[in-house]
Amino acid sequence: MVEVELTHDNTVRVHVLGGHRLLALRDEVTLEVGAITSVTRAEVDLRPPWIRTPGTFFPGAIAAGTFRGKGRKEFWDTNFKGHAIRIDLDGPGYTRLVVDVADPDAALAELSSAVAA
Hints:
The protein is α+β, with helices and mostly antiparallel strands. It is built from 2 helices and 9 strands.
């Protein structure tokens, strides 16, 4: 699970919590609000690209870490239980984030309003 923080300088910080830091091999991901193209709830059947660099993947149980595919670099931290949001990006670094949050509706509302501003 992660915590999404929107800072005053239009930066989004995604803090990886608990033991997921070990599984994802990452403490946080930082991105600019201007790089976000869309924010939606992640589909439960959505799966990461097949190259894990570095991270953890057990089908249907957990995806945590950085995953690469054809022209894609994605950060995932989800248990596939319907609490994930998908953040599509256009910019340097990651092309997509799929992360579990405690309250998906609140996170979607906060990020959507920041993108619209």
